[in-house]
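Researcher: If only I could read backbone structure tokens as easily as an amino acid sequence. Walk me, if you will, through where the backbone shape changes along the chain. I have put the entry right below:
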Amino acid sequence: MYRVGKRRLAFHMRKAGRTKALYAGSFDPITRGHLDIIGKALMTFDAVHVAIGTNVRKRRAFDVEESLRLIERSIAEHWPEAAAKADDLLFEGALEVGEYTDQSLIAYARKIGATHIVRGLREASDFNEEFKLHGVAGRMDPSIPMVHFICEAQFLHVSSSTAKELDAMGEGIGWLVMPSVEAAFAARRR
């Protein structure tokens, strides 16, 4: 038993029934590195909910609605079998895409019934920020553990910021993002 304030929380050393992970970020735009983390989460959890959260410290290149479409298109491009059926469910409902505003990551995790929060790590500098988030989230609700995945080596230098910067300089970004995202950048330049 752990004590949190006046509450007592019992932690059982076994997997919860059905697991659902929340993978939240700005996804502006979604990159091949994000897709790598989504793939790892899909192999680990019964369901994964990818959500765009609004980061007031970042200026968006794409509005939230377009970013949601780009996430869904990138998933379908990366995994054609993800949306193979006419019902528009990704991986037969195992993968959801949404957004949250004006609420904390933990509040949204509770709202969607997440049992875990997934975060991706690329390099050592990510660790400090994630360590802080891990501590805050753990204090807010220790019943929703945070799980960190390290992306594959080929994606260690892939970031949304890099995609935006290289695109602004006229450099190719196909190695960073899926074709639908590359096309969305090209459409913005016209």
Observations:
- The chain is about 40% helix and 20% strand.
